[in-house]
Each structure stands twice: as structure tokens, then as C-alpha cells.
Specification:
52% helix, alpha/beta, 258 residues, two-stranded parallel ribbon
Length: 258
């Protein structure tokens, strides 16, 4: 592809999968707009500028706050052309639903559902102005695997799955392609990797590095892929094992984290 003058926006880009997606895009010479809730995003931007010599803009925003989301989108629409939106920022965790604080539940819903919906809605006219544009939504294998002690998180990712496919169909024939990625467990750091591996076969079978996931996501998004499957084995297990077996099994595995 020719390097566009328009920017790619990556949310939650200061670390983990978001940071690696930003680097994959930077390697291809794409200008970037990176968002995060903290100043660590400046360090990420500086590293990528030094390494790849591309324009990078940073914005600190709390995407669980509706006003912050609308301020961010207004700012970007006023000052930048966008050819890609990567809705990566997300929140999950393992807690008993009945004992979880309400603000914890609200933050999952606001970040995983509200922010993605508003960002996409407000930035879509900008994306439509480009000769070719892309939306990449980072979903999760949990969209197909409801379980106890997570409850709201898998439900939010099921929303994202449905939202992405519906929007892709609505935008068919336009300049904008919509992709949904379904990562399983991610090796974001040593502690998380060890915790996932303690889950036994299921955790080890789905565990992939963020670098591997980012590379596959960027490559297949630019090809216009509808559903980016990171781990075919994990998806096969989700499809073949009935809910009556899978939900109790996953719930027992997750309960070990509490």
C-alpha cells in the first residue's frame, strides 16, 4: 500500500496489544494518533518516532467518560484525516458479580461498549472521506464463551462481535472495511502469562504473544478480513463443546483466579 497522509487512531496504545498494534502500523510507515489514560503514551510515541521516523500525535483521554470521548472525536475531526480506527482499549477482570463494586461494572460497560460505539459513530464521516479506510475492533474469544466470575466482560465482547458484523454489512460498498479480531489469552507480561498457564490445558492452548496477535490483526485488517481468528484451536473448542459443558468448565477455571 502507498503510505496515506491520513492517520491511524489506536486506543489504549501505551502498552500491551495496543502498543504492539501501533508498532506494526509504524513499521508500515503509517502516521499515528495514540490515546491512553496516562502520560506513558508519550514514552511510547517517542520510541516509535525515533525508531520509524513517522508523525505521531498523542492524546490523553479517559474513554470511560462520555464527555472525554466526544471531546476527543471533535478534536480529531477538526484537525486530522483518519484512514483507520483501532478500537483496542478494553477492560475485564475476574470477580464475583454479586460482590463487584458498581463502578467496576460500569467501567467495563463504558469502555467496552459506550466508548467503541461513540468513537466509531463520531469518526465514521471522517473515515468515509478517505479512498480506503478500516475499522479494527479488538474483541475476544470470550464473546463465544460466557462464564461465571466474568459475566459482564464476555457479554460486552459479544456486543462488540454483533456490532462489528452489523456495521460491516451496513458499510458494504463504501470505502470503510470493518474487521473484528478474536484473541484468546494474551501474554502481556510475566505475571499474566503465569496466571493463564496455571489454568491448565485451556489457558495454554489459547495463549499467544501480543506481538503475534498485533501482526496478524494489522495484516488481515488491511486485507479487509471480516473475522480475524488468532487461534483456530480455541475457536474450534468453543464451537464443538456444548454450552452445558463449556460454561461450567470455564467457570471453574476462572474461579481459580479469585
Amino acid at each position: 500500500m502507498d503510505t496515506p497522509k491520513a492517520y491511524a487512531l489506536v486506543t489504549g496504545a501505551s502498552r500491551g496489544l495496543g502498543r504492539d498494534i501501533a508498532e506494526e502500523l509504524a513499521q508500515r510507515g503509517f502516521p499515528l494518533i495514540l490515546t491512553s489514560t496516562n502520560s506513558r503514551i508519550e514514552e511510547t510515541a517517542e520510541e516509535l518516532r525515533d525508531r520509524y521516523g513517522i508523525p505521531i500525535v498523542t492524546r490523553i483521554a479517559d474513554l470511560t467518560n462520555r464527555e472525554d470521548v466526544l471531546r476527543l472525536t471533535a478534536d480529531l475531526n477538526d484537525h486530522y484525516e483518519l484512514f483507520m480506527l483501532v478500537n483496542n482499549a478494553g477492560m475485564g477482570g475476574s470477580r464475583s458479580f454479586s460482590e463487584a463494586p458498581t463502578d467496576y461494572l460500569e467501567r467495563i460497560i463504558d469502555l467496552n461498549i459506550m466508548a467503541v460505539t461513540l468513537l466509531t459513530h463520531e469518526l465514521l464521516p471522517n473515515l468515509k472521506r478517505q479512498p480506503k479506510a478500516y475499522i479494527l475492533n479488538i474483541g475476544s474469544m470470550t464473546a463465544f464463551n460466557p462464564c461465571a466470575y466474568k459475566t459482564v466482560y464476555p457479554a460486552s465482547k459479544a456486543f462488540l462481535w454483533s456490532f462489528s458484523l452489523g456495521l460491516r454489512e451496513e458499510l458494504k460498498g463504501s470505502a470503510v472495511s470493518v474487521s473484528i479480531a478474536s484473541p484468546g489469552a494474551m501474554a502481556t507480561n510475566d505475571e499474566v502469562t503465569a496466571r493463564i498457564q496455571r489454568q491448565g490445558f485451556w489457558g495454554k492452548a489459547t495463549l499467544k504473544s501480543t506481538q503475534h496477535i498485533a501482526r496478524k490483526c494489522v495484516r488481515q485488517t488491511l486485507k479487509g478480513k471480516r473475522h480475524i481468528i488468532i487461534n483456530p484451536l480455541a475457536l474450534a473448542l468453543s464451537c464443538l463443546v456444548p454450552d452445558s459443558v463449556r460454561v461450567p468448565l470455564l467457570s471453574r477455571i476462572v474461579k481459580r483466579e479469585l
